[in-house]
Amino acid sequence: MKRLAVAASLLAGLALLSPEVLSATSQGAPFAGTWEMNSSKSQVSDARSITLTIQEISDKIKVASNTKKGDSVVTTEFTCAPNGKECEFDEGGHKSKISLYFNGPVLVAFKTDGPDSDSASQWNLQVSADGKVLTVGVSHILPAGKDETLVFDKKTAQ
Known about the structure:
The chain has helices spanning 2-14, 19-22, 24-27, and strands spanning 33-37, 49-57, 60-69, 72-80, 87-91, 94-103, 106-113, 119-127, 133-142, 148-156. It is mainly β and 158 residues long. The chain has a single domain (2-156), classed as Calycin beta-barrel core domain (Lipocalin, Beta Barrel). A 10-stranded antiparallel β-barrel has the order 1-2-3-4-5-6-7-8-9-10.
């Protein structure tokens, strides 16, 4: 729980950064497009496939995903400004919280869940220099779990 409090304090501090540093307009564009997970390059804890659609909408970033595992498909979606403030995250009908901010070229997403925010994970999204590959590092903070690396190939630009 202490780690979650530290992370929340860090995010609150990031909200004070200048809008130019956090602007989706200046930094969100490389992320826009449809991305398909490359299973052979990804290191995940289960056999799933994911398609992401990322859009830049005004000063916000919209992320929609379809995750297929076996015969089931779960659709998730959120729209959030990259300013460190919490937004609602719809995970197939389940509501969580997510906040976004930029750390240089990396888009950082911090997700909390549970009635007491007793679950937390951090995603670091980075686009390759040629704009064709999106790498997502996932750290499972609470409860602690094995880190994952998801590698996506760009299918279409938005």
